[in-house]
Design brief:
about 20% strand, three-stranded antiparallel sheet, alpha+beta, 3 strands, globular
Length: about 120
């Protein structure tokens, strides 16, 4: 399977990368098998994700998953963001080779950890 045009665009031009000093939810998760890391920071106001930023360390799919994830959740309510699945993320990217699905799983785990802080 080759990577989609959307994947290549996010890899070349990542969205929402960087720190978010005023975040009210921050989660760091690591894939223990490959060592990939994802940090997600959110500003949530009135139960809605106003701003999302990420930092990723690892394979290109992890970087792309972080970028696409921030686009998918920005503007959503906490409940809407909680409904997001690994399959949703994979579909938004245009798919990944099965051996790289761990990148989408890491992104959703990191999102879940960040949202859990807001409960």
């Amino acid at each position: 399977m080759s990577y989609s045009a959307k994947f290549k665009d996010h890899l070349a031009h990542p969205r929402n990368a960087g720190e978010l000093p005023d975040a009210n939810a921050i989660a760091d998760e690591t894939n223990p098998v490959c060592g990939d890391r994802l940090r997600l920071a959110l500003i949530v106001k009135n139960n809605r994700i106003e701003t999302a930023r990420y930092l990723a360390y690892g394979c290109p799919p992890t970087l792309v998953c972080g970028s696409v994830l921030t686009e998918l959740i920005s503007g959503k309510t906490i409940e809407e963001a909680k409904q997001l699945t690994r399959t949703d993320l994979l579909n938004a990217i245009g798919g990944l080779p099965s051996r790289k699905h761990h990148a989408a799983a890491l992104a959703i785990e990191t999102l879940d950890s960040a949202l859990a802080q807001l409960a």
